[in-house]
Write a structure and sequence with these properties.
Elements: E1 5-7, E2 19-22, H1 24-33, E3 41-45, E4 50-60, E5 64-74, E6 81-87, H2 93-104, E7 108-112, H3 123-143, E8 151-152, H4 158-166, E9 170-174, E10 180-181, E11 192-197, H5 205-213, E12 217-220, H6 228-242
Parallel strand pairs: 1-3, 6-7, 6-11, 7-8, 9-11, 9-12, 10-12
Antiparallel strand pairs: 2-5, 3-4, 4-5
Function: Specifically methylates the N3 position of the uracil ring of uridine 1498 (m3U1498) in 16S rRNA. Acts on the fully assembled 30S ribosomal subunit.
Pfam family, one: PUA_4
Protein name: Ribosomal RNA small subunit methyltransferase E
C-alpha cells in the first residue's frame, strides 16, 4: 500500500530535510480519520504537480501534524492534455463520471448542460452541484495518488464548448452513429485533446452541427453504447493509452 496523499495549500518553500505542517480539514482527516501516527509515511501535494514524501514527525490534537520532508517531486504538465466536456447526467452519476475520469487521468472536466440533458443546473442547485463535482475530483485525485488534480471548470454553454473545440489540436464528439472509431483517430503528440460526451438522450442535431463547424467530428468507441457517466472514462483510458501517457 503506497503512502496516503493529502492536499496542502502551498509547498513552494518546502525542501528535503525540513518540515511542513498539515492542519485544517486535511489535518483533521489525517489525524482523526486515517489515524496517522509518528513514523508513518505520508505524501502531500498542492494538486498542481508538486509532491512531498515524508514521515509524520509529530501529532498535535485532532487536526494538526508535522511532516519531516524526505523528498520532493514535481511532475511536468501532461502532453497532450485531455479535456472531457461532460453532459450533465441524472442523479449522482455526475459525481461517478468525475470520480472515475479523475482516477483514470483526465486533466480537465467541463460540465455541459446539453439541450437533451434531463438534469439542468440552475441557481443554488448549480453552485451545490459544481461544488460536489470539484470535491469529488479532489478526493479522487488523492485516492488515486495523483500530484496534479484535474480542473473542473464552470459550466459552459454549447457556444462556449464550440469555441473550446475550435482551439483544440484534436476535437471529437462521442456519438453512436459516428463512422470512425476513436481508436483509429490521428492524435497529436503535444497540445490539447478535447472530447465531448453527450447526455443519455444524445447530442442534438443542432449541437452536432455547431461542433462540426468548430472542427469536432463524431467518433464511436465500439459496437456497444455506454452511458454518459461511463463513456468519458472509457474514452479517457483509450486516449491516454494511445498518446503514450500510460507508457
Amino acid at each position: 500500500m503506497t503512502a496516503p496523499v493529502f492536499l496542502a495549500e502551498s509547498l513552494a518553500d518546502v525542501r528535503p530535510g525540513g518540515t511542513v505542517v498539515l492542519d485544517g480539514p486535511e489535518g483533521r482527516h489525517a489525524v482523526s480519520v486515517r489515524r496517522l501516527r509518528v513514523g508513518e509515511e505520508i505524501v502531500l501535494t498542492d494538486g498542481q504537480g508538486t509532491g512531498v514524501h515524508g514521515t509524520v514527525a509529530g501529532v498535535e490534537g485532532k487536526d494538526r501534524l508535522t511532516v519531516a520532508v524526505e523528498g520532493l517531486r514535481t511532475e511536468d504538465p501532461p502532453a497532450p492534455t485531455l479535456t472531457v466536456v461532460q453532459a450533465l447526467p441524472k442523479g449522482d452519476r455526475g459525481e461517478l463520471a468525475v470520480e472515475t475520469m479523475t482516477e483514470t487521468g483526465v486533466d480537465a472536466i467541463v460540465p455541459w448542460p446539453a439541450a437533451r440533458c434531463v438534469t439542468q443546473w440552475k441557481g443554488e442547485r448549480a453552485a451545490k452541484s459544481l461544488a460536489k463535482w470539484r470535491a469529488t475530483a479532489r478526493e479522487a485525485g488523492k485516492q488515486s495518488r495523483r500530484l496534479r488534480f484535474p480542473e473542473v471548470t464552470d459550466p459552459l454553454t454549447t457556444r462556449q464548448v464550440a469555441a473550446l473545440l475550435a482551439d483544440a489540436d484534436f476535437a471529437a464528439v462521442l456519438h453512436e452513429e459516428g463512422s470512425t472509431p476513436l481508436a483509429t483517430a490521428e492524435l497529436p503528440a503535444e497540445g490539447s485533446i478535447v472530447l465531448v460526451v453527450g447526455p443519455e438522450g444524445g447530442v442534438s442535431p443542432e449541437e452536432l452541427a455547431a461542433f462540426a463547424e468548430a472542427g469536432a467530428q463524431p467518433y464511436r468507441l465500439g459496437s456497444t453504447v455506454l452511458r454518459t457517466s461511463t463513456a468519458g472514462t472509457a474514452a479517457t483510458a483509450l486516449l491516454l493509452g494511445r498518446t503514450g501517457r500510460w507508457s
